[in-house]
Amino acid sequence: MKLFRTGSVALVEDCQRFLNFLPASYQVDVRTVKFLQKYKALENRICSLFGQEADRQLRNLCTVYNMPSGSSACKIIKQIRNKFFKSLRQRIINEVFMIVSSHLASVFLLLLVSYFYFFVIFSVSIFFVYSFLLLY
Fold this sequence. Notes:
It is built from 5 helices and no strands. The chain is an all-alpha fold. The longest helix is centred in the last third of the chain and has 63 residues, at about 75-135.
């Protein structure tokens, strides 16, 4: 929020989306995937001791983002970005739906009131016309 100098969550999310800037939790996952892929590719004996742990962590990240366990870093990172942007889109759709539904309720109430006034005015005018006809 300090980066964009605002207190509005919606504005910050829009800035993140348009500037292609992921939140910290997603950035940690992206950097972890990059590191683990590079770590697995090393031929160092010490690194090979922890290769199974790197594989396990990569499989866990693939499971979190619904990817096959042997996916490349680029595909996993793309899926991480897609998940974030999909959650933003869903939130925007929900907000728009709430705004539209509240406006529809207002329009419905306005129509109901206007029909009531129309009925009252129509009834009063019929009464006056009927009274006028009776008098003459």
